[in-house]
Design brief:
Strand order of the largest sheet: 1-2
Largest sheet: 2 strands, antiparallel
Low-confidence stretches: 85-91, 104-108
Number of strands: 2
Mean pLDDT: 83
Distance between the termini: 50 Å
Structural class: mainly alpha
Radius of gyration: 29 Å
Number of helices: 21
Strand content: under 5%
Helix content: over 70%
Length: 429
Amino acid sequence: MRFWLLAGGGYILALLLGWGLPGVPVWQGGEPGTLYLVVLGVAGVVLLAAAFLLTLILARVVFPQYWWLCQVEGKDVYEFEGVYFVGMRLTRQTPRVQRLVFGVDERMRRWDMLFGLGLLVLFVPHVLGAATAYQVYERVMPQHHALPETLHRPLLSALPLMRELGLHWSADPAQQARLDGQFDRIDGQDVDELGYWFRLGQLHLLTAFPPREEVDAPYRYSPGERIFFNRAQAARGVTYLRRILDKPELERARYTGGALTLLGFFHLSDHNYARANEVLTRAMASVGDGDASGIPSYMVRLLAAQAVMLDGDPEAGASMLETILVDDRLPTHAYALATEHLAESMRLQGRPDRAGELLDKALELYRKLEDRAGIARVHLRRGVLAMERDDIREARRELSVASSLATGLRDGFTTNMVERLSLHFDHHG
């Protein structure tokens, strides 16, 4: 009786846990990041344990008594169907007795083999059940859709190297080719060692988002994406940034804030939000009057707030954004950016009405600035709000406007997010 209670209870618990864990990444937005992979890996292990317990229960009912006594209880069996032998070790018996009593040969016993095959067969429906549960969760659970790339284009456009070139970042192949040509030019410039490393760090990050020109090019969410994150290219830039940070503190003080900002941006792009939060918090403390990196301080604070929100604390992100908005010296476009992301924090806190008011304010500012990229992002966020109140028609209309604006600007980041949300509508709308 003890076996049936423990094995049965353990199986039910493992089954519920294995089929319940897939709901965690759905609740977190379904991104294929570290949490997503860890949760699904744990669910796989739990379901394997459930399949093992079920196989053990079936074996107790179906398999011969001697198998259970030997393999599970570890007892010596002295007699079975009129055949006598000493001990449970097969090596003590003649091959004829082994085949007669246990099966296949002296190394593999028939019932052990059937137990292993049974485990594999039962594991399959358990996994299929988890996949079905995941699809059900996607349909019925309210999802907090993350918009992780809304600051990518503003930051890349604000980098000192882009300002020197007089460019705003876009996915245009001609601009990417021009940036590629800067590697040789940087090598010929007369700059100090830290400045050289910082410029190379910028350049590698600027060229780490190439346009997808072929169908089989990498993508994160769907084949309709316009750009992808070339992590290997970005990691080369991180190598130079770490060289700066490895220098003595007094020697690298001028570039510490900038190097930490770009390193935090790398982790944001890699969807490692906890690490980005940690690095960007340090960056805010390092950016001051003596900073020579040339990255605007408001952009550092915006990135830090974004990392905090994506790491699961929209209230803290809202507090950081509100401190940005009280700065009287803030440029208009920075004020619009902060207002836009404050609206996002309100959405994540479950305050859609307040989020809508802030988006209206941000849209008004972007229209005055004639900033089509900003207008596109506002329509993108409005689409998410409409989707969360189940107004699919309004959501599709807003996303269509955002897509049109982004495509005209070759703003691959916004286009990627539109594609991702549109794909969600196709599956669940």
